[in-house]
Amino acid sequence: MKIAIIGGGASGLMAGGFLVEKGHEVTIFDANEKCGKKIYITGKGRCNLTNNCDTQTYLSNVVNGEKFMFSAINGFSTADTINFFEGMGLKLKTERGNRVFPQSDKASDVTKALLSHCKGCKFQLNTLITAVVKKGEQFVLYSQNNQFTFDKLIIATGGKSYPATGSKGDGYKFAQMFGHNIIKPRPALVPIKIKDKFVSQLEGLSLKNVSLNCAFNGKTKQMFGEMLFTADAISGPIALSLSSYISQAQHISLSIDLKPALSQEQLEARLLRDFSVNLNKNISHVIKGLMPNRLVEVFLNKLNLDSTTKVNAIKVEQRKNIVAHLKNFPLEFGGLYGVEAGIVTGGGVDLKEVSPKTMESKLCEGLYFIGEVLDIDCLTGGFNLQTAFSTAYACAKGIN
Ligand SMILES: Cc1cc2nc3c(=O)[nH]c(=O)nc-3n(C[C@H](O)[C@H](O)[C@H](O)COP(=O)(O)OP(=O)(O)OC[C@H]3O[C@@H](n4cnc5c(N)ncnc54)[C@H](O)[C@@H]3O)c2cc1C
After folding, report:
1. Which burial class, exposed, middle or buried, applies to 112 when counting CB atoms under 10 A from its CB (0-12, 13-18, 19+)?
2. Nearest CA to ligand 1 atom 44
């Protein structure tokens, strides 16, 4: 069978190899001069290619599309991904949070393994597909100067994030050409803009073991771990994860719990103790013991407290206010960065119109969607690439 794959990214390459080994004639189209351009920048150039976890944990890290992914992840699990790459000769290691990386710390080694899996596939690089139609039983793909005919078509064009890597949202246009509904693309795993002026003062500051709390639409969400201040936003693992839950929310309020391990009462007792042994010291001296130095001034400003105020001059109300702000330091939400800045794109091809077992379109026989073009997005930790691999495998199995 002649099969076209539009997109030589993580999902397209994975599917291509599984199809060519069954004797199909597979052509992978990519607009770039080489395949897997996005893979090179994953995991800060190290590629966190999956998570060494069980299926239930994988599913709990799928923000949108959890039910849909049930079949695909059972067909090709995180353990299958690990076995697959090790079988291709790529040595792997598991780090904090069960994140799996190549031992070499080189994302390019992941691409190399995928390319050798694709041995036997034809590559049409530097070929931007501009339109696709079905004529009778065949799919016709159009590039600027050419047209190509195939029996089956797999759309693996990714989302709209980091468009410089080639993922510009073309797959949505192609899906619409076949009558598919597109859930509006939105940013996911993206920095959260903060309106407070003090944020620029904190640029580069990373807070570890804090809890980022968010209230929206009558709900609350808490993320525990590490976050980072940028010039006008918060980023880092917990801020990025939180963004995926609030991209469609309204009435959002944010705060940081700087001492999540201590209850309000425990913190109050700790502060009283610190006060009692530092009565003649500046308040900044005590506060320094509770947070990174760079945050102290911003924190005290927020409470209208001068850093040189002596501890013995702090009134009970002010002390209670310090505790309240340690547990609940407010940040003024200023919106999310755009979809292009997201690690992944939320939204995409409506899952209701795609078979979760084979990734085949329910509207057009022989048409398949895999990877980020689908309305699926996951948290950080290797879950998005796993989704690309699992959907690719389901599709190849469906065709085979
Ligand atoms: C900075 C960054 C870091 C990330 N790190 C991780 C990580 O460590 N772990 C993880 O699990 N996930 C990570 N992700 C997410 C992950 O990279 C993606 O979810 C995954 O690559 C999606 O794979 P895909 O095959 O669906 O699409 P893509 O990898 O985006 O591939 C799509 C391909 O289609 C091609 N294409 C698009 N339109 C056309 C067209 N019209 N004609 C021809 N070719 C076309 C593109 O050139 C591209 O090569 C990261 C993403 C970013 C941006």
Report:
1. middle
2. 30
Taking a C-beta distance cutoff of 8 angstroms, is the pair 98, 92 a contact?
no
User: In this structure, are 259 and 124 located in the same domain?
Assistant: no
**pLDDT tens column, 319-378:** 999 999 999 999 999 999 999 999 999 999 999 999 999 999 999 999 999 999 999 999
pLDDT digits (tens, 9 = 90+) for 299-321: 999 999 999 999 999 999 999 99
The CATH number of residue 351's host domain is 3.50.50.60
pLDDT grade, residue 16 (50/70/90)?
Answer: very high
Please check whether residues 100 and 84 belong to one and the same domain: yes
Q: What is the pLDDT of residue 28?
A: 98
Q: Where among 317, 337, 357 does a domain terminate?
A: 337
User: Given pLDDT bands bounded at 50, 70 and 90, which one contains residue 86?
Assistant: very high
From CA 350, how far away is CA 344, in angstroms rounded?
16
> Which residue owns the Cα nearest ligand 1 atom 47?
166
Q: Is the CB of 382 under 6 A from ligand 1?
A: yes
User: CA 199 to CA 330: how far, in whole Å?
Assistant: 12
pLDDT digits (tens, 9 = 90+) for 137-164: 999 999 999 999 999 999 999 999 999 9
- Strands of the sheet with 50-51, listed across from one edge: 50-51, 99-102, 92-95
Residue nearest (by alpha carbon) to ligand 1 atom 38: 157
Length of the chain: 400
- 308 shares a domain with 353: no
Q: Are residues 163 and 234 in the same domain?
A: no
| 366-389 exposure pattern, b = at least 16 Cβ within 10 A, e = fewer | bbbbbbbbbbbbbbbbbbbbbbbb
119 and 161 part of one domain? yes
14 vs 11: CA distance, rounded Å: 5
Regarding whether 149 and 19 lie in a shared domain, the answer is yes
- Residue 4 C-alpha to ligand 1 middle, in angstroms? 18
Domain final position from 337, 356, 375: 337
Domain span at 385: 2-186+343-399
